[in-house]
Write a structure and sequence with these properties.
Blueprint lengths: L2 H22 L11 H4 L3 E4 L2 E14 L5 E7 L10 E5 L3 E6 L8 E6 L3 H5 L6 H59 L1
Parallel strand pairs: 1-6
Antiparallel strand pairs: 1-2, 2-3, 3-4, 5-6
Length: 186
């Protein structure tokens, strides 16, 4: 029996068990496609208490690439946070899907990696925040485009130089080979 066969035989029960665990926790697994209409008004839960909703999703903010940048969480005067709306970046939440097989019955819940106090420290969703965030993201987009263009120019230049050097080496080797052949023929 080869070592590969032994490894496959040993891993098969582990992989099967992992597959069963993953299917058992399918509700928490990424679903691949989400409905923003259904995500709006989804209950939001803080890290410290997954049984008590601390607000709901008021809005979904997208970036230039149409990816989710943040959610706006409406606290509705819960937990002494006031009736405020906070911007929570995509790195601070996960979305759980319930009844995911039926679009008519699909429900989401949003789980923060923040507690209620940390949510209160997030930026408030105001006109000032909106304008500043929009300008910052546009500037970052421009810098990314400029950086990508610069990287492309550097790569293109380096590749061109490398090809020129390789061509010169091949030409030199060819000349030396031709000279050696001429010398051998004489």
């Amino acid at each position: 029996m080869t070592s590969r066969t032994l490894l496959n035989t040993a891993l098969r029960p582990v992989l099967l068990g992992t597959g069963l665990l993953l299917s058992a926790s399918a509700m928490a697994a990424p679903q691949g496609l989400y409905s923003t209409e259904e995500l709006l008004d989804a209950d939001v839960y803080a890290k410290s208490d997954s049984d008590q909703a601390i607000g709901d999703v008021e809005d979904v903010l997208l970036d230039n690439d149409m990816r989710v940048h943040a959610l706006v969480i409406d606290t509705g005067d819960l937990f002494d946070l006031g009736d405020k709306q906070y911007v929570v970046g995509a790195e601070h939440f996960t979305v759980e899907t319930h009844n995911g097989e039926s679009l008519d019955n699909i429900e989401y819940s949003v789980h923060l990696d923040l507690d209620a106090q940390a949510l209160g420290e997030q930026p408030e969703y105001t006109n000032t925040w909106w304008n500043q965030a929009k300008d910052n993201l546009q500037q970052a987009w421009e810098e990314t485009k400029e950086g990508a263009a610069s990287a492309w120019e550097t790569t293109r230049s380096a590749t061109s130089d490398a090809l020129d050097k390789a061509g010169n080496v091949l030409e030199s080797v060819g000349e030396e080979t031709q000279q050696a052949a001429d010398d051998a023929a004489q």
